[in-house]
Amino acid sequence: MFIWFLVSAPIVVAMVFGTHRLDYRLIALGCLIPSLSWVVPQLGFLNTLLFHALVLGLVMGITVNKRLVRRKWIGIPIGGLLRLVVDASWLEIDRLWWPVSSLSITDLSGSTYPIVPIGIFLEFIGLALAIWAWQRFGFADSSTGRDEFLKSGNLPRV
Questions:
Q1: d(CA 8, CA 121)
Q2: 15, 125 contact by CB (below 8 A)
Q3: CB neighbour burial string for 38-67, b if at least 16 within 10 angstroms, e if fewer
Q4: What is the pLDDT of residues 7-49, one digit of tens each?
Q5: What's the pLDDT tens digit per position in 72-89?
């Protein structure tokens, strides 16, 4: 499941917070970082609440009195925390609350959803969301939406 994670988190942030000035590319990146555990099972801790809370604390600590820098980099922990939501990690309490739980790091890797059939279904939902977002945020018009997004990660005002 790649498209589902790549598309869902930035759309959720855009629709809930209603701001166009976040770097939505970094939100998507933050949502994809835990996918590294699919390739390297020892990185299973990337799927835990503790990891994303530490990343959020790190970004907040490093960017004290640097509002514009914080606005840019806060997307990574926001995307990571949203990954826990869109991956339904809250359904597996042992995974979510590691290291308090008894799971080993390699047990944490992968997605909560089975690849077939739910994972494939969510990929189609992600594709539909991407098509909707393409129209909603004006990416079809390269002189406005797409160029602004590629340069700054910001969504155009719509």
A1: 14
A2: no
A3: beeeebbbbbbbebbeebbeebeeebeeee
A4: 999 999 999 988 888 999 999 999 999 888 888 878 888 888 9
A5: 999 999 999 999 998 887
Of all residues in the chain, what percent carry a pLDDT higher than 70? 88
Residue at 3: amino acid letter: I
DSSP assignment of the chain: --HHHHHHHHHHHHHHH--S-S-HHHHHHHHHGGGHHHH-GGGGGGGSHHHHHHHHHHHHHHTTT-HHHHHHHTHHHHHHHHHHHHTTGGG-HHHHTTTTSS--GGGG-S-SS-IIIIIHHHHHHHHHHHHHHHHHTTTTSIIIIIHHHHHHSPPPP-
**pLDDT for the residue numbered 33:** 92
pLDDT at 103: 65
Identify which has the larger pLDDT, 37 or 95.
37
CB 86 within 8 A of CB 123: no
Question: The tokens 């909603």 sit on which residue?
Answer: 136
Query: What does the alpha-carbon distance between residue 116 and residue 96 come to, in Å, rounded to a whole number?
Result: 22
Query: What CA–CA distance (Å, rounded) separates 126 from 116?
Result: 15
